[in-house]
Every structure is written in structure tokens, then in C-alpha cells.
Amino acid sequence: MKKIKSALISVFYKDGLDEIVNMLAAAGVEIYSTGGTLSFIEELGHKAHSVESLTGYPSILGGRVKTLHPKVFGGILARRDNAGDIDQLGQYEIPEIDLVIVDLYPFESTVASTDDHAQIIEKIDIGGISLIRAAAKNYKDVAIVASRNQYGLLKDMLSAGGMALSEADRRRLATLAFAVSSHYDSAIFNYFNRQEGIPAFRYSADGGAHLRYGENPHQSASFFGDISKTFTQLWGKEISYNNMLDIDASLALIAEFDAPAFVVIKHNNACGAATRATVEEAWRDALAGDPVSAFGGVLACNREVDEQTAEQIDKIFFEVISAPSYSERALEILKSKKNRIILKLTGAPLPAVQFRSMLGGVAVQERDVKVGGVDSQMKCVTQAAVDPERVDDLIFANKIVKHSKSNAIVLAKNGMLLASGIGQTSRVDALRQAIAKAHSFDFDLRGAVMASDAFFPFADCVEIADKAGIKAVIQPGGSIRDNDSIEYCDKVGMAMVFTGLRHFKH
């Protein structure tokens, strides 16, 4: 245990600092401070030494240099069990510093609030980050608090230890400090690298949450990131790892639609989707697409959920529902099941990049933000043109196939998902799966459309689709055998369009 006899305090945000300062002052701790923090301490009625009085130098360069001095860092880095270090402290009249409290300049929030490069640069903390590293390095003798988020922890430690901290306490604080400094440096690098494009991957996320388990009960799991930027949980049990995967898939798909829409996700794929004039109609037809798979599914809507819709949704068992808002009565209805997870979406955009771990490394890619036929030309390659009433269905189907596991085929009609074949090792198998599923729910495929996430290497898929009653096809094109599929379509009067955009998803 080491008693806290002296402390250096230099923070940007003062919220919550008063309780710590009062504790230190009451225990007779010698306090050193800078600028606004010094004024804050004095306004609380406590005495403190200015860093300038310790170093003999004023704050210079517009405040860029305040604490960068041997009389500050010597007192932090000196090893108390090293006679040579202690002799030098005495020789140069450097006081020992037992506790350092720092709160860094708000770099990330400045980047988020302005494009003014000069202003952003000035929010790169130099002295603070140096103090953190020095105190954390010398944790055997010095305690470091690197963020206002740790004030409560320090208060509890000091109270429990009678103003003394154990080495275990100091090591924990040092670990937290390095988490702060590494996150801060990552944010700065990522800001600069927007322009430079240096091939280096730096991602840092605080607020890690332990999950019940991973994909299976024998796998441990955690989530890192600020999930509150995406949604607020209004009701229900703790969100699981698998829930998060399905929520992510549902939000990516529902974001594709402007008209009132509902989607039902199961194992990252849509088993139901529909766009309609009202939310209630959209839910009814999304559920009708596959009422069996919807059991235990994850739902997402892009409009407020009203009472009438909630009454219908409440009839089935589902894990999660996400929507921008809920009427008061709808929320009451949906809360009838205590474990049902109800999320209110913030409307935050989806991240521009995606990454996943593989082969001992990390692969990074841009999110697939385009939709074939919307962000690329929809080129009719057959003699038969697409009927105007089927154009919207082709786009609707292509949006869904884009978010389906490859190989994927989607069958749709009148703004409703009829069936899909997903995750198959051959495109023919995916199509046959989709047709069989549609027939199992007695859907009439005559006049339906088909979307494929990639080109057809042979004419077999369009032939099978034609015999099932499908009248229009949307696909990227690009096969050396495209003409085989085109010739078959021309022979039977089927319309087919190419988009030039493939939508593989693995």
C-alpha cells in the first residue's frame, strides 16, 4: 500500500472532479495543477501549487507547453526503491508525485463536430498523453487516472484504502490508462489516414460488454462499441451474440426501403419482406412469406409501429423488433412478453466499412451500398421488355438478394418476398430451393420475378424459372455464356435485365 501524499491534476472536463479534490485536500495531499484546473480547485476553497511555480517556466506557445518539464516528469517517473533516482530528485529539488489525474482534450468529439483542420489539430493532447504514459509506466509507485470516467473508481479505491492504494489498484489504473492512450492515438491516426490511406488497420472501441455466450453456449463472447448510437433498448432480456448478428442484418436490409416496409430475419437472411401502403399491411405480407421461419425471428420496420400492427405481431413468438418509434399502446402490447427485445432505432447511418477476422488477421472492405438497377443501369438484354409493373418488383427482389447469403436466388411478386434459396453451393440448387419453398406455401409463381446475386454460368436457371412461371429476371450478367441464357429467354418470351453489379455475400 502506498499513501497518496501528492497529486498532479490537469483535466479538460471538471465534471465530478470536485469530490476527488475534496477528498485529497481533506487528507492533506499536496496538489499541483494547471490553468483552468488550478482555478477550479481554488474556487472550491482549496490550496494548490501551479505547475509554473514548480518548473519556473510559464505556460508557453498558447498553452501547448505546460507540464513538459523534468521537474514534473522526474517526480512521476522516479523509482522510489532506486537510490540513484531519489538522490537526483533531491539534487534537482523535484517533488515526488504519487497520483496523476488527467482528462484529455476531446479530440474525437471535435472531429465529429467540425471540419476545421486547425481546430482539430489543437485538440491533439500532448502534455496529458505524456503524463498518462509516464505515470502508467511507473505504476509500482504512482497511480494514474486517465479519464473522468474513472473518477468514481478512484474515489472507491481511496475510500477503501484510507487514502492509500495497493499495487494491484495502481496496476489496474495503469491498464485503464493505456486503454485510454491507445484509443486516443488510434483516433488521431484514423483522422489523418482519411487522406493518406496508409495500409494500416487501427480500430479501437471502449465499453466492452460481456455477452451470455457466443454463437453456442460453450463459446465466450463480448461486444465492443457504442451500441446506443444505433438503438435504445426499451424492453426485454439481454441481447445475445446471435441476436446482434440478426439485428445487424435486419437493419442493413430495412435501410434499403423508402416505402413502409417490414422484414423478418432468421440466421442473417430474410425469410419475410414486404413493402405496402401501411405498416400493418407490410407486416401481414412479410409474415405470409414464411410464417414457419418467422417463429423466433428478428423483425425490423422503417415506420412507427401502431396499435393495430402490434396486435398482429403479438400473436407470434419472436426474439427482437426494431423500429424508429412505437405508439404508446403498441409498446404496451409488445411488452406483454418479458423477454421480448424491443429496440428504438436512432436513425444513425450504417458504418461505411466492414471488417472481420480471418486467418489470424483482419480483412476490411467498403460496405456494399449500391443496388443493381438503382445505382447502375438496368439494361434489358432480351427481345421481351420488362413490363412496367414488374420493374419495381425486380428492384425489390434485387435489394433482398443483395442481403442474402450466396449463392442466393430471390423470388418476389407485388412487393412481397415469396421465397428465397440461400447459402447454396450451386445457383441451380438455390433456385430449386426457392421454388420448392414457394410451392410449400401455395404461392403462385406465375408473373413473379427472379433476382440472382451473381451471373448464370449456364441457361439452366432461366429454364427452370420459366417452367415455374417466372416472367422477368434481374442479374448482374458477365458470364462467358450469357448468350445461352439470353437465347433461352428470347425463345420463351421471358424478359431479363443485366445490372453489371454483383452482390455476393458470405
Sequence-ordered SSE layout with sheet pairings:
Blueprint: E1 2-3, E2 6-11, H1 17-26, E3 30-33, H2 35-43, E4 49-50, H3 51-55, H4 70-77, H5 83-91, E5 99-103, H6 107-113, H7 117-122, H8 127-137, E6 143-145, H9 151-161, E7 164-165, H10 167-196, E8 209-210, E9 222-223, E10 231-235, H11 241-254, E11 261-266, E12 269-275, H12 279-288, E13 297-301, H13 307-313, E14 318-323, H14 328-334, E15 341-345, E16 353-358, E17 361-366, E18 379-380, H15 388-402, E19 409-413, E20 416-421, H16 427-440, E21 449-452, H17 460-468, E22 472-475, H18 482-492, E23 495-498
Parallel strand pairs: 2-3, 2-5, 3-4, 5-6, 13-14, 14-15, 21-22, 22-23
Antiparallel strand pairs: 1-7, 8-9, 10-15, 11-12, 11-13, 16-17, 18-23, 19-20, 19-21
Helix pairs in contact: 8-10, 12-13, 13-14, 16-17, 17-18
What is the assembly state of the chains in this entry? single chain
User: How many helices does DSSP assign?
Assistant: 18
Radius of gyration: 31 Å
Strand content: 15-25%
User: Within the largest sheet, what's the order of strands?
Assistant: 10-15-14-13-11-12
Roughly what percent helix?
A: 25-40%
Residue-averaged pLDDT, rounded?
Answer: 95
